[in-house]
């Protein structure tokens, strides 16, 4: 039996005098949904463990065990080269649990119950993504600790290091909304359980996470270069002073532009479509 949430009445359209009170009510609802999500994760820690295991396996199996067999494209330590790819996998791994959680709420009728209440239409989805963002931050801390143990070191100032992790956090949040979109579109938990792991595995290998796109077959090279994951990884390596893949293409030379455009479009599309589908779910 699902525990009732402390719901406040929230008008669909706020006037000027009600903006502050309305914003506070929306925040209350977001925190209530996020708290419920975190309690569920506390009872099923395996979902959190899955977010951590995927990047750890990549760093250990590829970055550590194969470090003597694979040379970094720009020289230096391959362990330092591959760390950014492992850190970015945290963002990709967060997508699946969010999608499954929202899909289970849809299947169990909880979304219908929320829609019948005077609750902000976006609070439920923001609550899910906020809670899973906290999980992603925890996973990123664990993966960073493992990376330090395996030999990763930043070679720049503290601001640059934090800026690199900030980019990964932005990617985490964009991927969470992609997970929400999967849930609102695919609906079936079984289908989501097949699709999301496929994305988590394929996207890093179609990027510069482990190898330079210049070494890939010509038909695949543009996909790897324009992959937003590649842009985030390239920017992080630059900010951390780690070995980076060389190349003369536009996305290689201007990863910041690719990040702003691709992640901006991705977030806007996922948020807009997910919210529209949520409003009509069960109708």
TrEMBL record:
UniProt entry keywords in alphabetical sequence: Antibiotic resistance, Cell membrane, Membrane, Transmembrane, Transmembrane helix, Transport
Recorded topology in the membrane: Multi-pass membrane protein
Annotated ABC transmembrane type-2 domain residues: 46-278
InterPro entries recorded: ABC2_TM, ABC2_TM_bact-type, ABC_2_transport, Nod_factor_ABC_transporter
Origin species: Streptomyces violascens
UniProt record similarity statement: Belongs to the ABC-2 integral membrane protein family.
Membrane spanning residue stretches: 46-66, 81-104, 125-152, 158-184, 191-211, 256-275
Principal localisation: membrane
Pfam families: ABC2_membrane
Localization, UniProt: Cell membrane; Membrane
Presence of keyword Transmembrane helix: yes
Protein name, per record: Transport permease protein
């Amino acid at each position: 039996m699902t525990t009732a949430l402390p719901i406040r009445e929230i008008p669909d359209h706020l006037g000027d005098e009600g903006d502050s009170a309305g914003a506070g009510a929306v925040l209350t609802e977001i925190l209530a949904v996020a708290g419920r999500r975190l309690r569920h994760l506390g009872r099923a820690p395996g979902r959190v463990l899955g977010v951590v295991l995927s990047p750890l396996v990549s760093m250990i199996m590829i970055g550590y065990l194969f470090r003597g067999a694979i040379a970094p494209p720009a020289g230096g330590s391959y362990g330092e080269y591959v760390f950014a790819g492992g850190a970015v996998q945290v963002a990709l791994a967060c997508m699946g649990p969010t999608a499954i959680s929202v899909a289970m709420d849809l299947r169990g009728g909880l979304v219908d119950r929320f829609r019948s209440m005077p609750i902000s239409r976006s609070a439920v989805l923001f609550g899910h993504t906020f809670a899973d963002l906290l999980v992603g931050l925890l996973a990123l801390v664990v993966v960073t600790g493992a990376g330090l143990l395996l030999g990763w070191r930043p070679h720049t100032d503290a601001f640059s290091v934090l800026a690199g992790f900030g980019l990964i956090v932005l990617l985490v949040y964009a991927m969470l909304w992609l997970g929400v979109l999967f849930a609102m579109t695919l609906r079936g938990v079984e289908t989501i359980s097949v699709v999301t792991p496929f994305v988590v595995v394929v996207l890093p290998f179609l990027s510069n996470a482990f190898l330079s796109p210049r070494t890939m077959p010509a038909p695949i090279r543009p996909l790897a270069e324009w992959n937003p994951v590649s842009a985030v990884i390239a920017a992080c390596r630059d900010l951390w002073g780690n070995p980076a893949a060389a190349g003369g293409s536009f996305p290689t030379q201007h990863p910041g532009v690719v990040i702003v455009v691709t992640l901006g479009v991705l977030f806007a599309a996922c948020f807009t479509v997910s919210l529209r589908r949520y409003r009509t779910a069960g109708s």
